[in-house]
Amino acid sequence: MPAFKLAIAIGTAIAITLSSCKKETDFIYEVDEIAIDNNGDKENVKSTTEFISIAYSDLYNTTILTDTLLALKIAYESFGDKRLIQDRIVRHFLNSPGTQLPSNTIMRSNLQLFVKDTYIKLYNREPDAMEQYFISTILNADSTITPELVYYAMMSANEYRYY
């Protein structure tokens, strides 16, 4: 008799275990569709000449001399790592005298306008709400960030290489 009760207890325990909790595998998420305005969709890569000329014009507000453009183009095309040489060209332009960037005081006086103007100048578009908020928040939180650093970051981004 005890063996019979034990068998019934084990059978009941197994039946309860098998019929109790079952993992649900069919989930239904109802998510509203959102239209995303992606202004950064640019498909055409700037040529070497365009990249150098536009970078120079963006920083000096004048056109680059033909001899300077030719020398930089030769250096650019002869170098294997294109991202590195782009970085070096942008750094060279930013560190050379004559760049016409807003001062730190002007940038800090109206961060929203600075971000908007910089996007228009470098990316030929206005920043979306998230970009505006994100960059303004970072600039507001860290007073050591200068306009040169903002320009460097934006000109080093992939979007700057496209139009």
% residues in beta strands? under 5%
H/E series? HHHHHHHH
Shape label: elongated
Extended strand count = 0
Poorly predicted ranges (pLDDT <50, ≥5 residues)?
none
Oligomer: single chain
- The end-to-end span amounts to 87 Å
Our Rg estimate from Cα atoms comes to 30 Å
Residue share in helix = 55-70%
| Main β sheet profile | none
> Count of DSSP helices?
8
Classification by helices and strands: mainly alpha
What would the average pLDDT be, to the nearest integer? 87
Keywords, please?
163 residues, single chain, elongated, mainly alpha, 0% strand
Can you tell me about this structure?
The chain has helices at 2-19, 48-60, 66-78, 82-95, 104-109, 111-123, 129-141, 147-156. By secondary structure, it is mainly alpha-helical. The longest helix is centred in the first third of the chain and has 18 residues, at 2-19. The N and C termini lie far apart (87 Å). The mean pLDDT is 87.
